[in-house]
Amino acid sequence: MRYGVNEQGYYGDFGGAYIPEMLYPNIEELRQQYQAITNDASFKAEFESLLKDYVGRPSPLYLAERLSEKYGANIFLKREDLNHTGSHKINNAIGQILLAERLCKKRIIAETGAGQHGVATATVCALKGIECVVYMGEVDMERQAPNVARMKMLGAKVVPATSGSKTLKDATNEAMRDWINNPLDTHYIIGSVVGPYPYPEMVAKFQSIISLETKKQLLEHTGRELPDYALACVGGGSNAMGMFYHFLDDESVKLIAVEAAGKGVESGHSAATTFLGKEGVLHGSRTILMQTEDGQVVEPYSISAGLDYPGIGPQHAHLYKINRAQYVSITDDEALNAGLLVSQLEGIIPAIESAHAFAYLEKMKFKPNDNVVICLSGRGDKDLDTYIKHFGY
């Protein structure tokens, strides 16, 4: 793949493995074994079987007729919200739990923001009977209380992160500390395309099923397998990488990643990483992140718990730097209004993360026959309290 990783674990200037010495054996074990394990026929068979019979794939590609009429193009929704557990996160969780089994790991840790990755991880651990500990920011635990309850019901231990902004960044820090203290028996299921190599490539590969299916389904719908535009929201960037993966080398496909501007990119309350960030190291890889002049991480903000992360995955940083993908941002209010619009035009309440991608349609101009694919990465049940408070229902 032209835009893929090199043998040293870098996407252009970004990537690598910037890790404490104690984690070196874990990362080296993963680097040496994950390709062989994931390319093994028995792994592929079990992965594909679980995606089909447990997750419910392929997820539909739905032509949203009323949105299409409003925006003057063919708007297709890749329905990851219909997956078991309600989002795209289950694709990666299935892949990594099978990998952990083959690495003979007895304990799983994970971090979560909106809770969707935590629920997906708790689900696959219950499926496989493996101990599960999920780190979650104290603020996120409060605004995503139903997902906390789901994780506990599935048998996971949910540990609050009480430092910093008490959100996703801090939960990731706590998970990293746990892994450093338990390097032998524990596998860390990272939920996005972030972290030290090989995690960004591994997660992207497990999520690439999104664009693989989209190609086939778009061909059935339109006679063309390539869309004119592919859109997805981006925090760390796992659903966006899955949506872009099989279109990266097709230069005619315009890739648009939508970040969270929060209360405005220059308000001091934002998570618009590419607009506000610069190159540095975050959670084990070189990427673009929001930081002060002396390199301290700037606390991000978004009304969406899944998008308030101060960086993006290293492959996204590469795609941004070489202009292969366009990175834009949408405010809280724009996203919430888009979520309401999709609900009332299509009868689908999207996760607030996904609503950021829908909101960008307002800023685009289309030709009548343009085919536009949006990754509807999760359903909005988890965000109902936020919608209700904002609109006063």
Report on the structure:
By secondary structure, the protein is of the alpha/beta class. It folds into two domains: 18-51 and 89-198, 3-Layer(aba) Sandwich (Rossmann fold); 56-86 and 207-391, Rossmann fold (3-Layer(aba) Sandwich), CATH 3.40.50. It contains 16 helices and 14 strands. Strands 3-4-14-9-10-13 form a six-stranded mixed beta sheet, with helices on both faces. Strand 5 (107-112), helix 5 (116-128) and strand 6 form a beta-alpha-beta unit. The protein is globular, with a radius of gyration of 19 Å. The model has no long low-confidence stretch (mean pLDDT 95).
Q: Average pLDDT value? A: 95
CATH class of the largest domain: Alpha Beta
In angstroms, what is the radius of gyration? 19 Å
The percentage helix is 40-55%
CATH topology of the largest domain: Rossmann fold
Strand content: 15-25%
- The counted number of beta strands is 14
Strand order of the largest sheet: 3-4-14-9-10-13
* C-alpha termini separation: 48 Å
Total count of helical runs of at least 4 residues: 16
List keywords for this structure.
Rossmann fold; TrpB-like_PALP_sf; 2 domains; Trp_synth_beta; 393 residues; tryptophan synthase activity; alpha/beta
